[in-house]
Amino acid sequence: MTATARFDLKMDAADKDIVSRAATLMGTTMAGFVRAAAKEKAQTLLDRESRITLSQRDFAAFTAALNSAFTPNAALKGALTAAAKVKRA
Predict the structure, then answer these.
(1) Cβ–Cβ < 8 Å for 30, 20
(2) What is the DSSP letter of 55?
(3) What is the pTM of this model?
(4) Is the Cβ–Cβ distance between 32 and 23 less than 8 Å?
(5) In terms of Cα–Cα distance, which of 45, 43, 19, 46 is closest to 33?
(6) In angstroms, rounded to a whole number, what is the distance separating the alpha carbons of residues 11 and 79?
(7) Is 82 inside any structural domain?
(8) Residue 5 domain flag
(9) Domain boundaries, position 51
């Protein structure tokens, strides 16, 4: 791995000892262990926050809205008419 960015971390002696022992158990360096653990935790958080969870009631309403016929409102009709006029000009 070629490092392209640097991130410094300070921790107390007890935390360093825990990380050191865990890294040894995993057969890697402390830096490698911290890098992998941070990446895994970050990915888990990003995955969770990028997902939308709906209740059964909300999901049913959402799918009903998707499956129902679409009728444009007055504002959308006006915008479509204006866009068509600009396109013709």
Answers:
(1) yes
(2) -
(3) 0.57
(4) yes
(5) 19
(6) 58
(7) yes
(8) no
(9) 11-89
The total of structural domains in the chain comes to 1
Helices (H), the chain: 13-26, 30-49, 56-67, 74-88
Query: Encoding tokens for residue 71?
Result: 């009728």
Q: Identify whether 55 is part of a domain.
A: yes
4 in any annotated domain: no
> For residue 39, what are its two tokens?
């990446």
The C-alpha atoms of residue 45 and residue 39 are separated, in whole angstroms, by 10
Rounded distance, CA 66 to CA 69, Å?
Answer: 8
Q: Give φ, ψ of 71 to 5 degrees.
A: -125, 115
Place of tokens 């791995």: 1
Token pair listed for 70 = 């679409």
Per-residue pLDDT reduced to its tens digit, 31-79: 999 999 999 999 999 999 999 899 999 999 999 999 998 889 999 999 9
The CB-side HSE value for 37 (13 A sphere, CA atoms) comes to 12
Specify whether the CB–CB gap between 48 and 37 falls below 8 A: no
